[in-house]
Write a structure and sequence with these properties.
The protein has no helices and 25 strands. The protein has about 350 residues and is mostly beta strands. The protein is elongated.
């Protein structure tokens, strides 16, 4: 006490510790979240994988042998621990980590505490015994329909004029998508599907709603969710007057009338182009019925189809034998109109090449 101090009572520090006779294992959970549940919020009866990561944090010369890892679920607030599974670990050396998985099928909705106990029964002498328990709070939900689109077919464009294959101005088309229910328990009824059109640079315009009486629930097969056949949602798009690029927006359950756990997979969009209507002449067949005989007249039949979205106006179809134009038909075809043109020709060639040309001008 050679130094005068204002407080002479805080100069001593004592610490008691234990000196072990030898290195001992120490079973503990890895740093960070040691437990995971997938899916994070399972529904009643669904399989949920509980994953736990643990280690022997003792010296590398130690080994923990033949110890039990126990998994419990506890329904809150007053449930008793229910043993889900207990698994033996043969050995875990110092510095080693391990992962263990089990599948849990909760049978009641509610809040749960999941608990994992390392060395259940305290069979392993450890340097530290109070770090063998990990817990995680989870929720188990009731089943609800889980509606989404079957994305493989995307948006089907079905022109009302069956010879057309695309969208043209002033021509009605049917737009169709296919709806799935991915929940393996709950079906959905009166499912509304809404379609919107937004032309490039413009605002959204309502096309219409489709109402599906029933979208059947999925099933489970060998642990996998197998959806029931998809249900077509179809509307007629009448207002195709504006040519150019369009975005079609599709909303499943736009009024949120159906409760779903996952609400973020109900909205989709697709791009399409509304084209200017033009005629499209096609020579669909060129036939010489029977057998062509040198010096004998026979019919040459030419089938012409306007597969476009507008009338042709006056046009010509030419018939050529080798390099000679032998006949010209003048005609006008409405959109979707098909005609059969016939010309009698007396064959003066041994191996003639016959050709028909539409809209030759």
């Amino acid at each position: 006490d050679s130094i005068p101090e204002s407080n002479e009572d805080n100069n001593d520090l004592e610490f008691e510790y234990e000196v072990l006779e030898s290195y001992m294992p120490n079973l503990s959970f890895v740093a960070g979240p040691p437990m995971f549940l997938e899916p994070q919020v399972p529904a009643v009866g669904d399989p949920a994988d509980i994953v736990v990561l643990f280690e022997n944090a003792g010296h590398e010369n130690t080994v923990a042998t033949s110890f039990q890892v126990a998994f419990y679920s506890i329904l809150q607030p007053d449930g008793t621990p229910e043993l889900l599974e207990q698994i033996e670990v043969r050995s875990l050396y110092g510095g080693e980590t391990a992962q263990m998985n089990i599948t849990w099928h909760p049978d009641v909705a509610g809040d749960y505490l999941l608990r994992v106990v390392l060395d259940e029964g305290n069979e392993v002498d450890e340097s530290l015994e109070d770090d063998n328990v990990a817990e995680m709070e989870v929720m188990v939900r009731e089943h609800t329909p889980e509606l989404t689109l079957y994305e493989a077919p995307g948006l089907e464009i079905l022109p009302r004029d069956d010879w057309l294959e695309d969208v043209f101005q002033h021509h009605q088309v049917e737009l169709a998508v296919y709806v799935l229910n991915m929940d393996p328990v709950e079906s959905a009824t009166e499912v509304r599907v809404r379609f919107w059109d937004q032309p490039e640079g413009g605002s959204q315009v309502l096309i219409g709603d489709a109402l599906l009486p029933l979208v059947q629930n999925a099933t489970r097969s060998e642990g996998e969710v197998v959806p029931a056949p998809s249900v077509q949602a179809l509307v007629v798009w009448n207002d195709t007057a504006l040519a150019g690029n369009h975005t079609i927006f599709v909303e499943i359950d736009p009024l949120d009338a159906i409760e779903e756990w996952y609400e973020d997979d109900n909205n989709f969009n697709f791009s399409l182009t509304v084209r200017e209507p033009l005629p499209d002449l096609n020579v669909t067949s060129l036939v010489v019925p029977g057998q062509a005989v040198y010096g004998i007249p026979s019919a040459v039949e030419v089938s012409v189809f306007n597969t476009g979205a507008a009338a042709t106006g006056q046009t010509e179809v030419e018939l050529w034998i080798d390099d000679t134009r032998v006949y010209t038909w003048g005609l006008s075809l409405e959109e979707g109109q098909q005609v059969l043109l016939i010309y009698d020709y007396t064959w003066a060639e041994d191996w003639p090449r016959v050709k028909a040309r539409a809209d030759a001008s």
